């Protein structure tokens, strides 16, 4: 469960202060499928970064599964990211020198999970994103859709409770984009909170709950 | 749970392999530094061993007695009266045999005298000594025998000549048994020294040795140049030195007007000087390792810039700053270790080639030089990679992820 309570995020730009997040309060529960839409500069990416613990609110509180995560130190926050949050980026962010399997394995390697267990879980994840036959390919040998599916496999490998997707289909053709969305939505069916940031109207409409942001404020929130 | 070392190494290895040129260049710089420490200290240590070997040919457990004191003392009656030090005599030399620590003694007189044989003449160094000089200085003979044993105060007419002198005086003809003229005296050649070459400044191939009493007559002086004393063992050298002093002081009316040099003391001085030089040479070579360390810093800084997005990703998938710092430092560590391994191989092979080319010169890397090379290489790599690695660890994840 996600709770944001009176969250502000201010950036100093020259002499002026930009309110990227202006008094945001919201709650998301298990199994929710939320899209965050809005024009660029509306603060939707900042919201995603705060939710993913990549950025810190200037004020306010972020509670994740009943725990205040705003006050955690670097190591504790990293652990929360690793265990609770999966990221899917527009530009995939795969490490080019590692194979698909190794990219998927990365969070488990950083977590110190035993190699045998890692192999087992990588196999399962590859199956889930139907990439078993591409396991030993490096990113430059994969298509865009295959890269994003690899990234999804990496995001779910630690069995997170939240999936944060930032324009997940932005670099994909329509067909592979649909594949990717179907995989993400299947994950959501199994109980994961799926949050998709996009300015693609059609994509946003797929979510059961749609949040619209303008100038750091939530202007609409509903089905 | 923390990440196993094997995974750190694997991750670093894959990263280094994907930037081949850069990796090869740094490893090369490191390897050159390590190899030069190893090769240069091998030269220094070789010089030290070379000198030690030279001393060993001089004979072991050796003490050398010189007339006169080399140290300056306070009020000295002899100095006050303007006396020169008393001569060392043959009796002084023989008196030293009273000491239970002395195995053998050999007096030595030195002079330069023209010598001739059937019209050929040249200037040669004449040594007046006794038969005991042969075991003390380990002379080997090519032909004939050494000076006859017996009463040192009796002159004799047998002489031993060096190989080069033999060649020059006699050419291809037989020398043994021939009479040569030495100054106004005549001596019969009874032995020829085996070729030995230069040892510590004296070329034994060009000398002629005659009985010490004959030399006293030839030079018209009773005064010895040196007394060589061989102690019974290495352990009693200090005691022997004290005994030699006290015997001679007693014989010189209570005045200590001689100097005793032990081979150990001279050798220790040489070792100290050359040891310091070797360390200095090694240190200069180690500076190249520090340069290589700075190179590593540069390359790691570039790597952090190039891999900013990757660092952001690592943060997103749960690597705390500390772990990212470690990942980058392991890369630097691997670079330096690889440089050490290659450098040691190159250094050892280079030293071996040097030994092959100059067999007389025992080039050999001292153990501390390996330790110094490896510690400096690894130390500078870690030191200089810390700043870039910390920069990587401190990157803002959002900013880093935006760079793609």
Key terms:
heterodimer, A: 223 residues, alpha/beta, Rossmann fold, six-stranded mixed beta sheet, four-stranded antiparallel beta sheet, 10 strands, B: 404 residues, alpha+beta, six-stranded mixed β-barrel, two-stranded antiparallel ribbon, 13 helices, 12 strands, elongated
Description:
The complex is a heterodimer of chains A (223) and B (404). Chain A has 223 residues and is an alpha/beta fold. Chain A is built from seven helices and ten strands. A six-stranded mixed β-sheet of chain A has the order 6-7-8-3-9-10, sandwiched between helices. In chain A, strands 2-1-4-5 form a four-stranded antiparallel β-sheet, with helices on one face. Chain A is globular and about 50 Å long. With 404 residues, chain B is an alpha+beta fold. Chain B folds into two domains: 5-55 and 268-402, no CATH class; 87-251, no CATH class. In chain B, strands 2-3-10-5-7-6 form a six-stranded mixed barrel. In chain B, β2 and β3 (120-129) form a beta hairpin. The model of chain B has no long low-confidence stretch (mean pLDDT 87).
Q: Secondary-structure map with pairings?
A:
The complex is a heterodimer of chains A (223) and B (404).
Chain A (H helix, E strand, L loop, with lengths): L1 E12 L2 E13 L4 E5 L6 H8 L7 E6 L2 E2 L5 H11 E4 L11 H12 L3 H14 L15 H13 L5 E5 L7 H16 L3 E5 L3 H5 L3 E6 L2 E6 L1
Parallel strand pairs in A: 3-8, 3-9, 6-7, 7-8
Antiparallel strand pairs in A: 1-2, 1-4, 4-5, 9-10
Helix pairs in contact in A: 3-4, 3-5, 4-5, 5-6
Chain B lengths: L4 H14 L1 H38 L4 E6 L9 H4 L9 H6 L6 E16 L2 E10 L3 H5 L3 E4 L13 E4 L1 H8 L8 E4 L2 E9 L4 E2 L2 E2 L3 E5 H8 L6 E6 L5 H15 L6 E5 H44 L1 H9 L4 H37 L9 H28 L2 H6 L2
